[in-house]
């Protein structure tokens, strides 16, 4: 799968028609929280499928009812890292594909005025328990939250990390890529830009985007 976005070599917007269709339904302002949550879960499953195309496999002989043949099973321990709150809705879909994955929550919210990430929850054990981490967060806006999450995971001792989101702003991709160029970014779409003070929406939101992904899932907007 080749990257099709801008200068960053590791950004993978999904080209799948179903992803584009479901993202369109998700963006609509009339989509209610129940439908929104279903779409987030479905898109998460599709994007995790795409993000796991290079997983290492362990080859082993197996017996079918007919004969012995070569089998292949997953060789890496995987951690799903939902960023609270909005990333929570992506766990269900990701877990359907990776039922053996460990789930480690990170709590980060973006300060409304400074747009800086504020960490409020982290129960990672001292030693890493997984080899590959998939960060789950629908929105990559300024990139501050994603950078903070990758910082935490690298300090934990995990070196293979991918970001799986729904929509990214170019500004967020550039920021994440400049600090952590080794982190692949899998999204359903790369949007135009972030909002500024000249826009009718508060600054720092993804344009055209879908609004606040947490509020729309949890009905708090
Ligand atoms: O790239 P950034 O500029 O850091 O913005 C992205 C972050 O903003 C949203 O979370 P939010 O702060 O709204 O918290 P919530 O999930 O609790 O609503 C989103 O889910 C990301 O975590
Ligand atoms: O557009 C945005 C930006 C950050 N967080 C969101 O939920 N939406
Ligand atoms: Mg929010």
TrEMBL record:
Against SUPFAM superfamilies, the record matches this protein to: PRTase-like
Report which reactions are catalysed by this protein: UMP + diphosphate = 5-phospho-alpha-D-ribose 1-diphosphate + uracil
Phylogenetic classification of the source organism: Bacteria, Bacillati, Chloroflexota, Caldilineae, Caldilineales
Pathway annotation from the record: Pyrimidine metabolism; UMP biosynthesis via salvage pathway; UMP from uracil: step 1/1
A GO molecular function term, named singly, is:
GTP binding
Cofactor(s) of this protein = Mg(2+)
Protein name in UniProt: Uracil phosphoribosyltransferase
- The record lists the organism as Litorilinea aerophila
Which family is this sequence assigned to? Answer: Belongs to the UPRTase family.
Gene Ontology cellular component annotations, sorted alphabetically: cytoplasm
Q: Sorted alphabetically, which CDD domains does this protein's record hold?
A: PRTases_typeI
Q: What are the protein's UniProt keywords?
A: Allosteric enzyme, Glycosyltransferase, GTP-binding, Nucleotide-binding, Transferase
Q: What is its EC number?
A: 2.4.2.9
Record bears the keyword Plastid = no
Record-annotated Phosphoribosyltransferase domain positions: 15-220
Note the InterPro entries from the entry.
Answer: PRTase-like, PRTase_dom, UPRT, UPRTase/APRTase
What are the GO BP annotations of this UniProt entry? UMP salvage; uracil salvage
Give the protein's function: Catalyzes the conversion of uracil and 5-phospho-alpha-D-ribose 1-diphosphate (PRPP) to UMP and diphosphate.
């Amino acid at each position: 799968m080749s990257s099709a976005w801008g200068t960053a070599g590791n950004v993978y917007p999904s080209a799948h028609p179903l992803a584009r269709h479901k993202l369109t339904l998700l963006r609509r302002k009339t989509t209610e929280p129940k439908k929104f949550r279903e779409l987030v879960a479905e898109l998460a499953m599709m994007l995790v499928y795409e993000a796991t195309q290079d997983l290492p496999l362990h080859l082993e002989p197996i017996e079918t009812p007919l004969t012995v043949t070569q089998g292949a099973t997953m060789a890496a321990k995987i951690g799903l890292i939902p960023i609270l709150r909005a990333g929570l809705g992506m766990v269900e879909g990701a877990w359907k594909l990776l039922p053996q994955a460990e789930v480690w929550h990170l709590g980060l919210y973006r300060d409304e005025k400074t747009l800086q990430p504020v960490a409020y929850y982290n129960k990672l054990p001292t030693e890493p328990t997984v080899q590959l981490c998939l960060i789950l967060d629908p929105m990559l806006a300024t990139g501050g939250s994603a950078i903070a999450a990758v910082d935490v995971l690298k300090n934990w001792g995990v070196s293979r990390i991918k970001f799986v989101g729904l929509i990214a702003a170019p500004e967020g991709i550039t920021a994440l890529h400049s600090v952590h160029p080794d982190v692949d970014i899998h999204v359903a779409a790369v949007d135009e830009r972030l909002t500024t003070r000249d826009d009718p929406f508060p600054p720092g939101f993804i344009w055209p985007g879908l609004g606040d992904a947490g509020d729309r899932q949890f009905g708090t907007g």
